[in-house]
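Contributing new complexes? Match this layout with zinc ion.
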Amino acid sequence: MPSAKLLTTTQPFHDFFPPHVVTFISDRSADFKFSETPTPFTRSQSAFLAQQLGFRLPEVLTIRQVHGNKIIIALRSAARRAVSLEDADGILTDRRDLAIAVRTADCLSVFLYDPRNEAIGLFHAGWRGTQQQISARAVALMRKQWDSNPKDLRVAFGPAIRSCCYRVGASFLEHFPKETLKRKEGYFFDLPEANKKQLAGAGVVAANIADCSVCTCCDVTCFSYRRERESAGRMISIMMLKK
Ligand SMILES: [Zn+2]
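Output block (do not edit by hand):
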């Protein structure tokens, strides 16, 4: 089985989104494993990001990820208050200079941008979230919130475990009949493809979806739950509309 692409840059979408839409994906040089701290990141994580990005993130919103399909919305118009940590798997915002972030170690991070309404979204999709239609739900929420036209949306896929490595049980055929591939070694799930189909079903144009094509399990510079089990750290995906 040929390896998928490797993560050669932490900003693989800098040509895909306009310059004021900041995106970043860490590799295993820093562990962003969730910890219940008063700030979204520890001092060393913040320092690492500032060094990587070339600037300090003004404000960060993260979530306690639960593998569901809840997506929270941080509105520009909402009163600024101490941000409470919520159980959710995605964030949408139209607030400038608010960085939104999700943690992954095999799950797919999905970046959304609506250029007409200047709104962004970031969520993570594992098989459970995908089964609960998190991609379709994110688009539906953008439509509801900003009257976003799915045809305008630009979507990018971060690193994730790919069908080269994502061996699953036959039960996946029930939920994902088209994206569960049978090979002689067993069944393999194509997680990004399942999300691509969901987005297409929600009206997103295929040409507006960029996939970095990195497999976290093949690429040893990534954290991978499948490869490292409990010892796996977490990679951070970040998106921000810069002022
Ligand atoms: Zn792989």
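Reviewers usually confirm one structural detail per submission. For this one: Residues 4, 162, 164-165, 215, 217-218 surround zinc ion (CB under 6 Å).
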